[in-house]
Design a protein that fits this description.
Blueprint: H1 9-16, H2 22-34, H3 38-57, H4 62-79, H5 89-106, H6 124-136, H7 140-151, H8 156-163, H9 167-184, H10 188-191
Helix pairs in contact: 2-3, 3-4, 3-5, 3-7, 4-5, 7-9, 8-9
């Protein structure tokens, strides 16, 4: 029996939600995908799609996020040979997603909101839309971490591991972001 800090790999991955050797696994998958192995790229997609979706959802309309995730991974597949450090795949694909979100708005893609008679203020969909709009109005650091936590269901340590932020930064971003979100949604009303 070791000290309290001597956790097995399984325990560490359970606590963080992201295996310790995930970067090495990503690197091996990237190298295989660069050699033309489609199942390896599909594994990369499965590992990172939720994170990319969350990042996009923090920046674009929910109706557009799913399509943009597909576009980001299509671009990643096409440009995979340009990735110099295979272990940097997670950061690289997030950069592609951020740029794709910016391009989405540059193209002037317009989305239409549902008519008022369909989307009443009492509906859960209206509440979710209001919460998402409030999150999108927050500063970027809070917006991304809140979406990854509240919408994508990622843990704080998992967000830190996948976005290369420190766990302390993620905790601070989540704490401050939640405080701002509560204020934006009406303070006590958000606690009900």
């Amino acid at each position: 029996m070791g000290c309290a800090f001597d956790l097995s790999l399984w325990q560490r991955s359970f606590v963080t939600g992201w295996p310790e050797n995930a970067t090495a696994e990503d690197a091996a998958l990237v190298k295989a995908a660069q050699a033309g192995d489609r199942p390896a790229f599909e594994a990369l997609y499965r590992r990172h799609a939720r994170m990319v979706h969350g990042l996009l959802l923090a920046r674009v309309a929910a109706a557009d996020a799913d399509d943009l995730v597909q576009e980001v991974f299509l671009q990643a597949w096409r440009r995979l040979d340009s990735l110099r450090d295979p272990a940097a795949f997670a950061g690289w694909v997030l950069t592609l997603a951020r740029r794709r979100a910016v391009d989405h708005y540059r193209r002037g893609v317009q989305t239409a909101e549902l008519p008022e008679e369909i989307l009443s203020e009492d509906s859960p969909r209206a509440e979710a839309a209001a919460a998402l709009a409030a999150i999108r109005a927050l500063p970027e650091a809070y917006r991304e971490t809140l979406i990854l936590r509240l919408v994508e269901g990622m843990t704080g340590p998992e967000i830190a591991a996948r976005t290369n932020l420190t766990p302390a930064s993620v905790r601070v971003n989540l704490h401050r972001g939640m405080k701002l979100l509560r204020e934006a949604l009406g303070g006590s009303k958000a606690r009900e």
